[in-house]
Recover the amino acids of this structure.
């Protein structure tokens, strides 16, 4: 690796600051991930470059403005009727073309072209190779995309560009514009826009052309080092994630107690190495839930009443509710096949269909009118009102008492019931009702107990949390995926004895608390690393 300035080799700072999802494309590998420290390093390189602090300077620089170093390349109207052609010899670039594969820095191809004759007829401005273009309208401004034209190209009205004057290199303008956050100069709220009159007065510094090329060469060299650092870090992070996933998978796939113990010992011996990121802690928490519902988290007690006897008591309570007219008789549930039994049951457990142990209903499918002028109104909760594990009643629509009572005849919501999202991108999100506040529900599954003393609500909540992951993968439908009530009722679950349900919840809560503490420590360390990267950048600029 090339030597470069001393500050670039603080690898512990640049590569340990938090890895984060990235929006838009940059100079890195384009896989949607960015390392915060390396992102700051790139910003530092650009900052020092345009300030003349990146390499030793031989001559004084001129203080000037953007409008003085180039001529503005303005966009043209492009009627829909003219779009879609690929037969013209002039490219017609839009903001969307900047996202095309291969156009990460230079515009080599566009989705539309135009002929010279059509360009004359439409009075389209055609700009020369070497012009640097960028978005000038809307949210695209904040993406800070910059692209260089490689052949005569027209641009649409959502773009603006700068064509270098004599003595100014294209790469220098590209570097300057990459450094400037143009969103700071936008005006307008609903549709922000950049005004040419504002941009042309942005102050910049201009070295002579030879110096421009020297600086650009050094920037490219250092950016290549950044790319190497980021690739190495991301590859290591991805390998770490795969390793953690594999090792946690050995726990859930263990075939015996001895096998499970051996697999756990391998993880425990290197716990501090494996669980060092927020993502790895989240994976651990999900594995703990999976182990809990498989009976591998707490030991079985032979003195517990077996689940087979518990099922008889649940069925008796269910029959009583049917006889009293409080619930309807179910359609017979299908027998559970061997293929549906995904693991070896612990002693005292039973395979059951979900409807056997909990009443699976849903809310209304109607759209009651908003309560208006009512002295008493009630929230109508949908999955959109689920918020941080609870219900945000402030966002729920209000309906009349009459509509609430009508919905409650079929879907009365009570304390400790579980609401479960069935539709859309948040399938599997669930909340437990924590108080006796009356409200109605719409388009969510409602899990009610035949007898809360026979099915521990907090165990069912843990089961639902674990279930959500697999349901999200198996949802049907395209733009609006969903899970049917029938599918929920026929889900196969492993039912533990009632005392073990309580022990499982206690152990899960204990372990989740430890995971949260560890995750908090990791988050604090990551934030400290980010602050350290910021400080190094500030010191390098000030020096």
């Amino acid at each position: 690796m090339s030597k470069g300035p001393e500050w670039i080799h603080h690898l512990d700072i640049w590569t340990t600051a938090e890895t984060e999802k990235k929006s838009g494309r940059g100079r890195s590998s384009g896989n949607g991930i960015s390392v915060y420290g390396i992102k700051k390093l790139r910003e530092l390189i650009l900052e020092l470059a345009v300030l003349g602090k990146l390499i030793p300077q031989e001559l004084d620089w001129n203080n000037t403005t953007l409008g003085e170093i180039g001529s503005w390349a303005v966009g043209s109207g492009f009627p829909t009727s003219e779009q879609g052609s690929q037969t013209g010899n002039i490219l017609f670039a839009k903001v969307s073309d900047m996202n095309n594969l291969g156009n990460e820095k230079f515009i080599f191809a566009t989705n539309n072209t135009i002929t010279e004759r059509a360009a004359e007829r439409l009075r389209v401005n055609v700009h020369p190779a070497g012009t640097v273009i960028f978005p000038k309208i809307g949210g695209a401004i904040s993406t800070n995309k910059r692209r260089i034209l490689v052949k005569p190209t027209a641009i649409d009205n959502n773009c603006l560009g700068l064509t270098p004057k004599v003595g100014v290199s294209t790469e220098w303008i590209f570097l300057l514009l990459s450094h400037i956050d143009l969103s700071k100069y936008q005006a307008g709220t609903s549709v922000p826009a950049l005004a040419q009159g504002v941009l042309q007065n942005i102050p910049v510094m201009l070295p002579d052309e030879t110096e421009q090329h020297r600086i650009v060469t050094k920037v490219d060299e250092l950016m290549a080092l950044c790319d190497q650092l980021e690739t190495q870090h991301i590859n290591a992070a991805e390998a770490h994630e795969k390793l953690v996933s594999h090792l946690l998978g050995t726990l859930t796939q263990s075939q015996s107690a001895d096998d499970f113990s051996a697999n756990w010992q391998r993880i425990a011996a290197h716990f501090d190495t494996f669980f060092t990121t927020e993502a790895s802690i989240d994976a651990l928490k999900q594995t703990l839930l999976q182990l809990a519902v498989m009976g591998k988290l707490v030991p079985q007690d032979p003195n517990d009443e077996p689940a087979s006897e518990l099922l008889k008591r649940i069925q008796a309570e269910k029959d009583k509710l049917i006889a009293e007219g409080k619930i309807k008789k179910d359609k017979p549930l299908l027998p559970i096949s061997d293929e549906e039994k995904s693991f070896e049951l612990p002693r005292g457990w039973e395979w059951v269909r979900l409807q056997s142990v909990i009443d699976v209903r849903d809310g209304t499918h109607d759209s009651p009118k908003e309560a208006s002028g009512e002295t008493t109104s009630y929230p109508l909760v949908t999955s959109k009102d689920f918020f941080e594990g609870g219900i945000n009643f402030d966002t729920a629509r209000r309906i009349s008492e009459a509509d609430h009572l009508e919905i409650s005849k079929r879907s009365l919501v009570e304390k400790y019931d579980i609401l479960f999202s069935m539709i859309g991108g948040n399938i599997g999100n669930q909340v437990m009702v924590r108080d006796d506040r009356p409200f109605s529900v719409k388009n969510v599954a409602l899990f009610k107990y035949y007898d809360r003393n026979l099915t521990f609500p907090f165990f069912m909540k843990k089961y639902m949390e674990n279930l959500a992951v697999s349901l999200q993968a198996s949802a049907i439908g395209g733009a609006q995926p969903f899970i049917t009530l029938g599918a929920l009722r026929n889900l196969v679950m492993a039912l533990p004895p009632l005392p073990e349900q309580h022990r499982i919840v206690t152990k899960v809560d204990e372990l989740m608390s430890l995971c949260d503490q560890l995750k908090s420590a990791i988050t604090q360390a990551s934030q400290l690393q980010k602050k350290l990267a910021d400080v190094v950048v500030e010191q390098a600029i000030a020096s």
Summary: Residues 21-32 have pLDDT under 50 and may be disordered. The CA atoms of residues 29 and 231 lie 7 Å apart. The first helix runs from residue 11 to 16. The chain has 16 helices and 24 strands.
